[in-house]
Amino acid sequence: QVQLVESGGGLVQAGGSLRLSCAASGGTFSDYVMGWIRQAPGKERELVAAISRTGVTPSYADSVKGRFKISRDNAKNTVYLEMTSLKPEDTTVYYCAATITTSVVTTVTENQFRSWGKGTQVTVSS
């Protein structure tokens, strides 16, 4: 079972940028499709971005397309989420998650992720 630890959250003004990192241990990192998931209070859980095992294919929620970029470094067992043009509605806890699946990454849903980190808070002020 892979263990995941997120970092990089914080407070930023609207329009600003943050870079989240997630370090994985305890498994073969390249076996996992990785994702970033968020759930704001009173809202549905949302798979913000996912990335294939090789890092070649990313997938994004419509709400973040063009603003967020997911990437991974399999040599460092780390996945990243570069967030730009941040909006107050992006405020919530962001969770790194991992799953082993044969599904095409663009079809993966948040319910398929079995391993989660504890999350990192992102707060965007207006």
Short description:
The protein has 126 residues and is mainly β. It is built from no helices and eleven strands.
Description:
- This protein has strands at residues 3-7, 10-13, 18-25, 33-38, 46-51, 58-60, 68-73, 78-83, 92-99, 115-116, 120-125.
- The chain is mainly beta and 126 residues long.
- The strands form two sheets. Strands 2, 4, 5, 6, 9, 10 and 11 form a seven-stranded mixed β-sheet that branches. It has a four-stranded antiparallel β-sheet with strand order 1-3-8-7, with no helix packed on it.
- Strand 5 and strand 6 form a beta hairpin.
Topology (elements, then pairings):
Layout: E1 3-7, E2 10-13, E3 18-25, E4 33-38, E5 46-51, E6 58-60, E7 68-73, E8 78-83, E9 92-99, E10 115-116, E11 120-125
Parallel strand pairs: 2-11
Antiparallel strand pairs: 1-3, 3-8, 4-5, 4-9, 5-6, 7-8, 9-10, 9-11
Which structural class do you get from the secondary structure elements?
A: mainly beta
Write down the overall mean pLDDT.
Answer: 96
User: How would you characterize the largest beta sheet?
Assistant: 7 strands, mixed
Strand content: over 45%
Low-confidence stretches: none
Compute the number of helices: 0
Please state the CA-atom Rg, rounded to the nearest Å.
Answer: 13 Å
N-to-C CA distance: 39 Å
Tertiary shape: globular
> In total, how many beta strands?
11
H-E order: EEEEEEEEEEE
The helical percent reads under 10%
